[in-house]
Amino acid sequence: MAKQILVTGGTGFIGSHTVVELQQAGYDVVIVDNLCNSKIETVDNIEKITGIRPQFECFDLTDVEKINAFFKKYTSIEAIIHFAALKAVGESVYKPLEYYRNNLNSLMNLLDCMKTYGVKNLVFSSSCTVYGQPDKLPVTENTPRKPAESPYGNTKAIAEDIMRDYAKANAEIGINCLALRYFNPIGAHPSALIGESPVGIPNNLVPYITQTAAGVREQLSIFGDDYNTPDGTCIRDFINVVDLAKAHVVAIDRLLSKKNKANYEYFNIGTGSGVSVMELVKAFEKSTGVKLNYKIVGRREGDIEKIWADTSLANNELGWKAEATIEDTLLFSWNWEKNCRGIK
Ligand code: NAD
Ligand code: UFG
Q: How many angstroms separate the alpha carbon of residue 155 from the centre of ligand 1?
């Protein structure tokens, strides 16, 4: 019998790609999502890619009654991947309680249920935001965390601490938590059936680029070219979303086969290379043949100047490595945007 995995936030950007990879690796997936930032059609599109329809339950994970009813109904779940969270950094500054309540209560409700219903393994979506602007690059897992720049970032740091303490307190009953610290996830599935669908004006670079290329936005603003980097624009570690999804399958395999070395572990998930905003724009133009209308404007408040991952631990310990090229990844983003807009 296929092992059953609960994927919270499974109709979202990273969750949907992970559901596909889990199904293709032979896992049976149940999605829980309240659709606050995703669409039910994603379930159909996952089925189109894999030929398997994941089970889907729509409710809010902060609802204690509903989450308990869920675990009473699904009694074979062996592990959870917890993606569900609110993730708009800017919005979190204005609505801190919504972010703390949603992101932390949903995690704590799941942890409570793990103990009550005997689910031993949890993989969690953390972020390189926990490093702030590091003093030394690239960042390893031993790089000290810095105070969060936003309530959103703080929910990730607090969530990591909650899992560490919870796993320690419940070591004797075999509870394991594993956090993946994502760098900058971009791209879409090669089928162009699933991808990133930001609501309203995108905050993130790649959706803004593809929407500008599609003519939905007039011009891309590049926030600052006076940083201490070779071309003056910020540097990030852009990780392909399918590669990122595969890291979750590896993490689940590790926990289910009891290969984890501690009952709380955390890994950097990036490519190991820094790419500047300007380099990314040029790579997009090269791989798609579409000229982008852009201008340099002032810096965006709160931006980190440069960050990229040392991925040795994930490479050596998880046996996972990012594979996609930045050009292919950007082409997949563009194909997804075109598909959404009906552009040939
Ligand atoms: P997303 O918004 O596309 O997906 C999150 C999903 O969770 C959405 O479908 C939303 O409807 C659902 N959700 C939110 N709160 C919920 C709740 N209380 N109950 C049930 N469902 C709920 O986001 P994503 O980009 O796929 O991110 C997934 C995870 O990865 C998040 O935890 C995010 O913080 C983290 N992360 C994302 C990035 C990034 O740049 N995309 C970077 C680092 C970490
Ligand atoms: N940028 C532009 N123009 C835009 C959008 C972004 O120049 O229209 C620049 C930003 O200034 C930054 C870079 O592109 O230098 C990347 O910006 P993103 O908003 O795409 O990504 P961030 O690195 O700021 O943050 C993202 C997620 C966070 C997460 C973090 C680390 O939004 O949630 O990656 O994983 F915490």
A: 12
Closest approach atom of ligand 2 to CA 153? 36
Residues with CB under 6 A from ligand 2: 87, 89, 127-129, 182-184, 203-205, 208, 220-223, 234, 236, 277, 300, 303
| Placement of tokens 């979202």 in the chain | 12
Q: What is the pLDDT of residues 306-329, one digit of tens each?
A: 999 999 999 999 999 999 999 999
CB 252 within 8 A of CB 27: yes
Question: Catalytic site residue 182?
Answer: no
Whose CA is closest to atom 8 on ligand 2?
205
pLDDT of 39-93, one tens digit each?
999 999 999 999 999 999 999 999 999 999 999 999 999 999 999 999 999 999 9
Render pLDDT for 158-192 as a digit per residue (tens, 0 to 9). Answer: 999 999 999 999 999 999 999 999 999 999 999 99
Global pTM value: 0.98
The alpha carbon of 171 and the centre of ligand 1 are apart by a number of angstroms equal to 28
Q: What's the CA-to-centroid distance between 3 and ligand 2, angstroms?
A: 36
Q: Is the pLDDT confidence value at 5 over 90? A: yes
Q: Which of 152, 208, 227, 264 is catalytic?
A: 152
Q: Quick one: pLDDT at residue 52?
A: 98
How far is 254 from 97, CA to CA, in rounded Å? 35
